[in-house]
């Protein structure tokens, strides 16, 4: 086992959850395979200062829940995972029970939840301020999801930040056409992996 893989196992153990492993079982033309975001990338995001304990983070296509668990544990934010597949949603809630069962996470109980819903149908809550995406679905669905986020923004104007890890070119081209979205930063993660690619970044946008 290499160092990166060992770190994945250690972090899962620290959180008392099981999230490791890619799964193509439910993928199709519009919904992409489950693959958890590397803990090293999440650590860099947590240390960026863009997400604080006052935020509510929405993770679209959360799978087994790694992002909500880690970010809540690391920065103390509220976190909600959105997942449409029964199997992953069930596994995420199994992880939630194990996470909450660990005494060291007692103060975080109630700060994490998982919603079974299609991303494009999910009604964004008024307190949601941060949104995380790791290529969960096609650009067609992304347009609908952003429309829901914009509806929430106009209903209750507030600071909103959107994080896109390993973004597709289609995503980036589309984001640049959305007047309300302003590109503010790029968290470089290329040095974390042996294979170098310019897509190994977290792009950060804000609602203007």
How large, in whole angstroms, is the Cα Rg? 16 Å
Percent in strands: 15-25%
CATH topology: Rossmann fold
Helix-strand pattern: HHEHEHEEHEHEE
DSSP helical segment count: 6
Q: Helicity range of the residues?
A: 25-40%
The end-to-end distance, rounded to whole angstroms, is 45 Å
Q: Low-confidence parts, pLDDT < 50 over ≥5 residues?
A: none
Number of domains: 1
Give the helices and strands, then pairings.
Blueprint: H1 3-15, H2 39-46, E1 56-60, H3 66-75, E2 78-83, H4 86-101, E3 112-116, E4 130-133, H5 139-155, E5 161-165, H6 169-175, E6 181-188, E7 201-207
Parallel strand pairs: 1-2, 1-4, 2-3, 4-5
Antiparallel strand pairs: 5-7, 6-7
Helix pairs in contact: 2-3
Could you please describe the fold and organization of this structure?
This protein is of the alpha/beta class and 208 residues long. The protein has a single domain, classed as Rossmann fold (3-Layer(aba) Sandwich), CATH 3.40.50. The chain is built from 6 helices and 7 strands. It has a 7-stranded mixed sheet with strand order 3-2-1-4-5-7-6. Helix 4 links the parallel strand 2 and strand 3. Helix 2 packs parallel to helix 3. The protein is globular. The termini are far apart. The mean pLDDT is 91.
């Amino acid at each position: 086992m290499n160092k990166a893989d060992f770190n994945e196992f250690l972090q899962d153990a620290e959180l008392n959850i099981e999230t490791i492993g890619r799964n193509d079982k439910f993928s199709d033309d519009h919904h992409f395979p489950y693959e958890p975001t590397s803990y090293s990338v999440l650590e860099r995001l947590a240390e960026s200062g863009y997400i604080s304990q006052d935020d509510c983070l929405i993770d679209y296509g959360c799978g087994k829940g790694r992002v909500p668990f880690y970010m809540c544990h690391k920065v103390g934010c509220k976190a909600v995972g959105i997942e449409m597949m029964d199997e992953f949603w069930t596994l995420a809630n199994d992880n939630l029970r194990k996470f909450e069962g660990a005494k060291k996470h007692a103060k975080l109980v109630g700060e994490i939840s998982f919603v079974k819903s299609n991303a494009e149908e999910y009604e964004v809550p008024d307190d949601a301020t941060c949104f995380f995406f790791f290529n969960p679905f096609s650009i067609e669905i992304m347009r609908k999801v952003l429309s829901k986020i914009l509806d929430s923004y106009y209903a209750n104007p507030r600071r909103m930040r959107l994080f896109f890890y390993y973004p597709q070119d289609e995503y980036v081209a589309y984001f640049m056409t959305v007047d309300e979205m302003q590109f503010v930063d790029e968290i470089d993660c290329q040095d974390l992996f042996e294979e170098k690619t310019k897509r190994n970044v977290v792009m950060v946008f804000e609602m203007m």
